[in-house]
Design the sequence.
């Protein structure tokens, strides 16, 4: 008997795999990622095997399929820009396809009843099953004994009595199980989705609000949202400010020929990236904003490149002016 499992890398999803694996089922762990959640780096796969004895079968990047959900998610957003119900439906539909490709018989997830405010309530769980075509084939081993028996349980592919009846936010039982499996390093509860972060969500909303109707954000723009301070200088132009060396490096690496990159001349300081339609129109304001992130009273000189190359000398904007343009 074979199953596929969605693993986030958090404790619950790893335990769900173990609970089924120890019943003799071959489990193929799938790690679904988007630009907002999950890890594509090889270290993740290595850690899963080294620390938890779990061999990741596939890392699946669903960013392109996910982006349209940000424009108009059929089941709405959570507290921030997180379209959790539609996200789960997307992940599970892909899991079902892989299940069929691999000749597996059911899908496992680490969901725990009542742990998250919205997406783990039972009417929602049922809706998700229905919309993914996985009715009866979605096994949630951590809460299985609280839920109606699934096909794997009814058919005896897994023993329901050896599954769990965990609900709510307490992690007591999960920690007991982790101890039983000899896991010294307890993975943090799965989370780590940028779309649940209020600051990131605010930047994303600003980006979406300023795109032509129906247009999707580019992957570059989505990556840029993760770094620095963001300023909306006009409906078509935005400034991203890197305030530290690491941020400056990322900002520079994401610059394109259409942008204007600003760097301090002859002293260490912030890097700015001016992006959008005709960014040169906002060059002086952008440089003054950057001046606010330099040490001292100024004036400061910045080198700029993109379109043309040159330098510009500015005094820093007063703090109250800075706040006026700040997205977050
Ligand atoms: S928190 Fe993020 S990754 Fe998790 S279901 Fe919601 S949108 Fe998807």
Sequence:
């Amino acid at each position: 008997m074979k199953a596929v499992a969605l693993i986030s890398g958090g404790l619950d999803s790893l335990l769900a795999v173990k609970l089924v694996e120890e019943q003799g089922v071959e489990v193929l762990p799938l790690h679904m990622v988007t630009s907002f959640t999950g890890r594509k780096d090889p270290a993740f796969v290595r850690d899963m095997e080294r620390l938890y004895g779990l061999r990741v079968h596939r890392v699946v990047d669903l960013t392109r399929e996910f982006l349209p959900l940000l424009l108009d998610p059929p089941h709405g957003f959570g507290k921030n820009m997180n379209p959790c119900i539609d996200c789960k439906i997307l992940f599970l539909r892909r899991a079902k396809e892989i299940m069929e490709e691999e000749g597996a018989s059911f899908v496992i997830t680490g969901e725990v009843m009542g742990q998250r405010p919205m997406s783990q309530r039972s009417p929602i769980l049922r809706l998700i099953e229905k919309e993914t075509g996985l009715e009866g084939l979605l096994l949630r081993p951590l809460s299985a004994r609280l839920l109606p028996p699934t096909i794997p349980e009814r058919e005896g592919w897994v023993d329901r009595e050896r599954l769990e009846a965990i609900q709510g936010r307490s992690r007591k039982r999960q920690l007991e199980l982790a101890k039983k499996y000899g896991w010294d390093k307890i993975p943090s509860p799965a989370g780590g989705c940028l779309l649940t972060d209020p600051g990131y969500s605010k930047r994303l909303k600003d980006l979406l609000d300023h795109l032509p109707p129906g247009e999707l954000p580019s992957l570059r723009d989505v990556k840029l949202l993760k770094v620095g301070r963001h300023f909306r200088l006009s409906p078509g132009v935005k400034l991203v400010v890197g305030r530290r060396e690491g941020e400056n490096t990322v900002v520079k690496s994401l610059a394109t020929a259409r942008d204007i990159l600003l760097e301090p001349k002859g002293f260490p300081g912030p890097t700015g990236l001016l992006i959008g339609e005709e960014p040169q129109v906002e060059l002086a304001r952008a440089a003054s904003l950057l001046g606010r992130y330099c040490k001292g009273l100024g004036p400061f000189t910045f080198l700029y490149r993109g379109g043309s190359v040159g330098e510009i000398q500015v005094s820093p904007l007063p703090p109250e002016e800075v706040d006026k343009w700040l997205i977050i």
In short: The radius of gyration is 24 Å. The chain has twelve helices and eleven strands.
